[in-house]
């Protein structure tokens, strides 16, 4: 309920506030779409530049999917670093083996993580930030790819899917998008699957706000 309230306030009034007295607002339509995308994931950047968690609906759904695949290798793709940090904390608390590739991980370390994910026997969770995933990684050992949040560039989306579906993939891989009901998530996912980018995707998002 808190997430829905915060989302609807931002959608209707370009503004939402929090119990601690802080608030988040959108000065332009494009910032509004960004804030709505964050809120669909349960968090938002407030006007002071701090991340606020509004609720855990999508986090809970993601953990449920991971629990169902406790003996599998699973990639969780995120657009926002705050989502990765929250999942990192929850996976550590749950004593689930995990690795992470975000923008701070140097190329040589990414190669080590890729090798461990591909060759290791343990059922790892790999937290992957879209742009840090790059076009060079091979992650065909994945049993499932969970799209926690979506990037707004079709090339990033296609490259991510290409990490698990490429030469060397011999098994079935589930692609599981987590789409918050009645939010920009559904419109964005449909646009990305249709190959829309740039102006066309922006028009879709602006029309769905």
What does the secondary structure layout of this molecule look like, with pairings?
Elements: H1 2-13, E1 15-17, E2 23-25, H2 29-40, E3 43-45, E4 51-53, H3 57-68, E5 74-78, H4 81-93, E6 98-101, H5 107-119, E7 125-129, H6 130-133, E8 144-147, H7 154-164, E9 174-177, H8 184-193, H9 198-208
Give me some keywords for this one.
209 residues; alpha/beta; 5-stranded parallel β-sheet; 9 strands; 47% helix
Q: Major sheet, described briefly?
A: 5 strands, parallel
Shape type? globular
Strand order of the largest sheet: 6-7-5-8-9
Structural class: alpha/beta
* Amount of helix: 40-55%
What's the helix count?
Answer: 9
Q: Detail the poorly predicted runs.
A: none
Radius of gyration from CA coordinates: 17 Å
Oligomer: single chain
Arithmetic mean of pLDDT = 90
The topology string of helices and strands comes to: HEEHEEHEHEHEHEHEHH
> How far apart lie the N and C ends?
19 Å
Strand fraction equals 15-25%
Instruction: Compute the number of strand runs.
Output: 9
């Amino acid at each position: 309920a808190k997430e829905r309230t915060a989302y609807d306030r931002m959608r209707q009034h370009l503004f939402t506030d929090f119990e601690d007295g802080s608030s988040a607002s959108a000065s332009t339509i494009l910032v509004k779409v960004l804030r709505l995308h964050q809120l669909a994931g349960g968090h938002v950047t407030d006007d002071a530049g701090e991340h606020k968690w509004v609720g855990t609906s999508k986090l809970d759904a993601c953990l449920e999917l991971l629990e169902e695949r406790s003996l599998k290798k699973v990639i969780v793709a995120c657009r926002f670093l705050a989502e990765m940090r929250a999942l990192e904390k929850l996976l550590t608390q749950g004593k689930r083996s995990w690795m992470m590739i975000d923008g701070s991980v140097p190329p040589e370390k990414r190669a080590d993580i890729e090798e461990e994910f591909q060759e290791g026997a343990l059922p790892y969770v790999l937290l992957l930030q879209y742009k840090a995933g790059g076009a060079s990684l091979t992650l065909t050992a994945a049993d499932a790819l969970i799209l926690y949040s979506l990037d707004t560039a079709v090339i990033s989306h296609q490259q991510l899917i290409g990490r698990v579906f490429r030469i060397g993939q011999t098994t079935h891989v589930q692609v599981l998008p987590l789409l918050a009901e009645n939010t920009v998530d559904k419109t964005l996912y449909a646009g990305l699957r249709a190959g829309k980018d740039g102006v066309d995707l922006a028009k879709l998002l602006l029309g769905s706000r």
